[in-house]
Design a protein that fits this description.
Order of helices and strands: HHHH
Shape: flat
Structural class: mainly alpha
Radius of gyration: 15 Å
Oligomer: single chain
Helix content: 55-70%
Number of strands: 0
Distance between the termini: 40 Å
Largest sheet: none
Number of domains: 2
Amino acid sequence: MAKRMKNIEYAQRRGKQKRLDAEHIAHSGGEFVPSSPPLFSHDATLQSYFNKGWNGVTACDISMHLRETKTTEGADLVSEIRNFKACHFR
């Protein structure tokens, strides 16, 4: 049985995913990514965690999502180091 996520974890993950989706749409369609995160919840705490997820997306996350950075597949230590180097040492 999978572990259930807390609401704040869900809000943060959803914020990150929404930002990556917005970046993908902007990249393919020429639109701009909103500078401020969209409304996720009227609950201030959940909106705060959504904003953290939205603003926590790095340029490396975006390029990996858009498949611009080529990394090796695999779960061994060498491939993890290659993934790290591809994002942080260009």
